[in-house]
Amino acid sequence: MTALLTTILWKWPSARYHVWSNNMLMVKVERFCGNPDSSIAISVLKLYSALALCGHGAMKLLERKELTAKVVQSLGKSHPISVRIEALKLCRHLMRSAKGCSMLTSLNCEAIVQEINHALGGWRSSSCKRIPQDQIPMVIEACRTALMTRWVGPHHSFFWANKIDKILLDILIGNCITKNQTQVLLSSENLLSLVSDNVTSAQPFIWDILGYLAAHCEEDFHPKSKGKPLFLDILISCACLVATDMMQKGITSLPSSVSEIEPVSRAVLLMVFSPCKYVSSQARNNLSDMVKPFGDDYLQFVLSSLKVLATGDVSIVSNSLHSITNLINLASFSTLPEYHNLISENNGVEILSNIIKSCLKSDIRVSRSSIASHLQCCWHDVEEWEGDDIILFYSLRALSQLIGFSNLVYDHTKESSNKHSEAQELISNLQYILSSTFGRGPRWFAAYILSFFGLYGFANKLGRRMEKALYEQELADVELLLMNGQSYTVHGAILAARCPYLLPQRESHIEERKLNGHHNELEIGHHREKLIHRVRMSDRVDSDALFRILEYVYTGFTLVDKHLIKQLKLLSKFCELKHLSALLQKKQLSWGNAGPSFDLTVVLNPAGHPFSDIILEANSSERVTCSFSLCQLSQPHMHSHKIILSSSCDYLRALFQSGMHESFSEIIKVPIGWEALVKLVHWFYSGELPGIYPDCRWNNIDTELQIRELRAYVELCSLAEFWCLEEVGEESLKVIASCLRSDQRASIGIVQFATKLNQWKIVEIGAQEIAPSYSKLRVAGELEDLDEEVIDMLRAECVRNTQKSGHKSV
Length: 810
Description:
By secondary structure, the chain is mainly α. The protein is built from 41 helices and ten strands. It folds into six domains: 1-155, Leucine-rich Repeat Variant; 163-293, no CATH class; 297-371 and 384-453; 461-506 and 530-585, Potassium Channel Kv1.1, Chain A; 599-688, Potassium Channel Kv1.1, Chain A (2-Layer Sandwich); 691-809.
């Protein structure tokens, strides 16, 4: 039965929801996981793998601790190879995301890594020089599972502790290294032949695993030798040797396939840029020595071929695919100082800048999984740190290493210089990347390159809205006092979210302004001034530097003059603004790092309550527990901050400044339900409106629940018209449209509700979804509650549909 069910799930993926959401069925199936009968155990593991291909299904399986414990046990060497292979596959599917990897490894990280390592290298216990044929499938599957190294976590230290470098090396060249052979192998040309003689199907995975291990290696990591061969050294040499051999062949003959070159070239790239000083120095030294005989010729060949890509001809995919490996290798060469002059003389920076421009103009996107064939069954549906266009990513990666030596940086401020217009165009393109969704990696490198032009930070739409708050004096509640008598009045809510180290930490740092007998506020004319917290700054703090810090805190971006760099390095470090500090010190972000985010939602928690000055009250009778311990309101509400609300909403800004009775009220009654209010406030504080993904869960929930979820977005569309929130209205409309197109069951209910709120765009969208079933619904009497005007729209839409399809109207 489980085998039949697995077949059904592979053929009809939408059926997965009905299996993983059936708790009684899942409990019964779990009893057979780890069954002594291997055929039953395999069948159950295959069923779980089919379920884990659904992201929600994977999370449900991971929540069952007893089940995951049984799966980990199935990895053990006491089980047949066929069972271990299926257990490895299941683990691979469960760890397709960082969250899944974290959840599974939290159970018993060391045991999981040990079993993966044993599956990779257990064949060596029989003194075999090469992997036995019957164990190759398990080794390949273990390689795929070991790609969990792409995620940050404690599993990296366990892989090193279990000698992953020796295991990977043995798979590459065979179990043939002894202490006496080490120097011979390192200096002999036999090393390359040993690599080519072993299991070639495993090599792409080996290179990826090695690259990820290097990318996430600690800065002070060093392999322990104790008189033993340094297997990591040999492994690094192997990667560099294979990569440089392919480089040399590419000059004089047709290059190898991209899927063969890319993994090893990428591994070398990740090693030369590794945060680990030992790994990066070993990789750079090896690369430098190995390319000496042909390095100049190869670089000229690469730069010449990239000129074609730089002309804007990115759409020639066959050319651009090989250009990817050229870009990767150029980025690796950029770490070798002896080639900087050659790259500069051949206009390397200008070529990369033009490729970036071409990528932004082109609709062609080349993702890594589209060229790395070994990943097709592993991680192709997981978002890569590189983004969905690796041509753009590797161009930025190479440029980030070379921009510091370019005349573009030195001449960009001279308007008479020929480089001025080129630099301005590059800056414009980089700023566009920052403000778009190109992936975390491309955005980081764009920011890093911009820092050489004095532009620091990560521009974003919420930061742009908050910029006006920096100059808003009326709602300020914190005053930063400098020793020279200058001061800046700022907002505690924004500092609490973005830079709490600038807030008063002790009572001795706080001075309260109490005038006219008012303890917490000062009334002047029609305005109220809050309690002001005064913070005295050190005499070493420069006023201009402090303002740049504040500008970064409020907007996520700042323009910095060279004479302020030293002061800003100290201030950003003290304030623990780690991403700004990294940019100022020209430190690269580690591979896979999430990067900065501009998010103020933390002040919706108790940390922001001391600065709350307004309450948003929902039009709802639901009982909601308030996190503010002193609050006694029974109506659903959220404690908010006028400065954040007014920066994103001109209507509220005008209301707070109007001097009318409502401007003094501590509560604003918002004419929407609780669910809609929660989404609205999240948009105010994060810049993103929470959405609904029309996936298997959405398509299978009760219709009434669907309607309830979508009603919140209909209410937001209505409020957006009144409060002039165009972006909220547009995003809400997109959510409603995508959900109704995915599942039409809620269309009638939403059309009916939208009619009451005069949301005719939503009514039109709903009518388009209902129209094909108009006749059946009319006969069934399901349209009786709709207004005549809406029924006329449905009838007209039905006629248009029948005319388009060429059928006669009934």
